[in-house]
Amino acid sequence: MSEAVLRLATAADLPALRAMMARAIAELQVAFLSPDEIVASASMMGLDSQLIADGCYFMAEIGGELAGSGGWSRRATLYGGDHSSGRDARLLDPATEAARIRAMYTEPGFARRGVGRAVLAACEDAARAAGFARAELMSTLSGQPLYLAAGYVPIERILDTNGAMPVPLVRMGKAL
Predict the structure, then answer these.
(1) Which residues are in the N-acetyltransferase domain (predicted)?
(2) What is the domain range of residue 102?
C-alpha cells in the first residue's frame, strides 16, 4: 500500500468529504449497528466545518484518492456536524482541558490500512504542539477498536438520542 499523504482540508474539499463520510457511516458500521441505528447515526454524525475554518482538519490521500479524514479541536464541542444541536465554540484551556479529536472517517475501500491511525497521530501531534496534554473523543462502536489500539480508554458509554432512535457511543480519553 502507498503511504497516506496528509494535508489540511479546505472549504473546497467539503463536497468530497461529506460524500466519503456518508459512505463510511453507511458501510463501516454494519457489523456494529442495526440498519435503523445507522440511519439515526447519520443524523448526528458529520463534519463540523469549524474544524476546517480553524485549520485543524486533515485529509488523507493515497494515490490521489481521498482515503480518510479527521481533525482535532481546541473548542468545547466533542462531536457532531454542522447540523447537530448543542455545539459549543468556546475555546478550551490546554492547561486544564482535553483537546477534542473529531470527525474521524475512512473511505470504506481504505479501511484497516493504517489511514485512521495516520490521521489520529497527526491530530494528536497538532494538539500536543498547541499545548494540550490530553485528548478526548466520542467514538462510534466501529471506531472503538482503533482508539483502544492507540491507547484511548473508555470514560463513559452513552446513548445519543438526537436521531430517530438512540445510538450507542463511547467517550474515550488519552494522555498525549
Answers:
(1) 4-176
(2) 5-175
